[in-house]
């Protein structure tokens, strides 16, 4: 699994619509409204590295109301969500 964290600046009066549209994009697992320098944070989870460009540059950046994005790639994921998913599909082994 390839994970990208995308910080998004959006037109202020369109933040809810922008967030909803981004949340509907295949490969986007969550969208958060956040405080600070950025308006939204999107979690992109895809199976292949090449899909990151398709999701972010190909779709997310083209959503009406998106002004700017900054993408960060995750090296490793440390979360209960991902560990549970690995167990449910048989990728993790137990002794």
Provide a concise account of the structure shown.
This protein is of the alpha+beta class and about 100 residues long. It is built from 3 helices and 4 strands.
Features:
single chain, alpha+beta, Alpha-Beta Plaits, four-stranded antiparallel beta sheet, 4 strands
Total domains, how many? 1
Number of strands: 4
Helix share bin: 25-40%
Provide mean pLDDT, rounded: 90
CATH homology superfamily name = Lrp/AsnC effector binding domain/regulation of amino acid metabolism (RAM) domain
Low-confidence segments: none
Structural class: alpha+beta
Sheet of most strands: 4 strands, antiparallel
Terminal CA distance reads 24 Å
Q: What would you say the CATH architecture is?
A: 2-Layer Sandwich
**Strand numbers in spatial order across the main sheet:** 2-3-1-4
What is the name of the CATH class? Alpha Beta
CATH topology: Alpha-Beta Plaits
Mass-distribution shape: globular
- Number of helical runs? 3
How many whole angstroms does the radius of gyration measure?
15 Å
Q: Tell me the series of helices and strands, N- to C-terminal.
A: EHEEHEH
What proportion of the residues form beta strands (DSSP E)?
25-35%
């Amino acid at each position: 699994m390839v994970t990208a964290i995308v910080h998004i600046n959006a037109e202020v009066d369109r933040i809810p619509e922008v967030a909803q549209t981004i949340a509907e994009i295949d490969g986007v697992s969550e969208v958060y409204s956040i405080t600070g320098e950025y308006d939204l944070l999107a979690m992109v989870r895809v199976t292949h590295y090449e899909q990151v460009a398709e999701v972010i540059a190909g779709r997310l950046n083209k959503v009406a109301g998106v002004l700017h994005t900054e993408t960060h790639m995750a090296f490793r994921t440390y979360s209960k969500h991902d560990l549970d998913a690995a167990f449910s599909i048989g990728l993790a082994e137990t002794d």
